[in-house]
Amino acid sequence: MHNSAASFIFNNAPQLFSGIEATVLILCASIALSIPGGFIFGALRCAKNKVLRYSTRAFLEFYRALPMALLLLAGFFLIPQIFQIQVSGEFVAVTAFSFWGSVEIGELIRGAIESLPKIQTESGTTLGLSKTQLYRYILIPQALPRVLPGAVNLITRMVKTSSLIILVGVVDVVKQIQQIIERTKDPLIGYIVLAAVFFALCFPLAQASKRLEKRFNPTGEPL
Amino acid sequence: MVYVQISRNVPVLVFLFFLYFGLVQIHIILEAKLCAILGLGMMGGAYMTESFRAGLIAVDKVQIESARSIGLSPLQILWHILFPQAFAIVLPNMLSNAHAILMETAVCGFIAVPELMCVTRDQIGMYYKTYESFLMLTVSYVVLLLPLSLIAGYTERRVRNAQFGR
Predict the structure, then answer these.
(1) What's the whole-model pTM score?
(2) Which residues on B lie below 8 Å from A61 (Cβ)?
């Protein structure tokens, strides 16, 4: 009962850090998968084909409209039923998060490419660039800086939402802290430490996003 | 500022745990629903603060200067000039915040608030009808969230058109 935050952290350091490690690993895996996924999804969203465009739009809206907790639970219970395979909580968490990341990053990329002045595309076409060349040399390099702040912001949201993965039985930092609390009977300090951990993970990212935004868009006009 | 930063960078779930389980230690016992309202309110408040700040900044400087030149007091400027314009600008943003808060309610099941998600899990536990329950849950969320998101899209278009017309 008479623990300070420092002794709480010190006494339970290994357990605490293994929790943080699990959270960070899952996040890194999801982010690493979302970036290529985002490019693919963004390309699909930019496609001329109406069926492709509307189906991806529908998928996006659908995915956005459902809470992460539902997606995690549904993935955890429905994937084994449908495909007759065993899945671990980690697998479901990474899958759900990387789908989410891909969809959102894809949307950011689409928004950035569409926000580029039309003259860029036209000039590129005039020069006789092929579609691939146009995207590779003209559009994507200009769109990327505009995507970055939003992408970093998205990662912050992912970090926050990652507290939900205890739902599918992953022993992440939240679960570890709960276990420590059950042992030490010290919920007040425990949850303050937990809040501090998430703050420490998210705050630098939020600041980075703000700085990137200022750097690539110094006038502050909406892109 | 500190409040906004903390609320924006800490997951709601952690807030809820802190309010519900943490405060018990210093003999503050809150009911689960109250905790949920407080936690979500805190998060939502921070997001709303940020959008509203952005809205106030987005109002043209000329507006303030003109208001001052016709002799309005700062309070009058805020109430008659800044507030109506800022409100129009941030309305779509506020609706999307409301959307986010509505989605976050799924978290409240963790602190024994019998909300949609929690009830669905109970149903699955009772009847083993996983597909049906999740389908029902999905439909319920879509029914709750779709109108909100449509209204948000509509107001956004309205606001943008209004700005064009200016």
Answers:
(1) 0.79
(2) 149
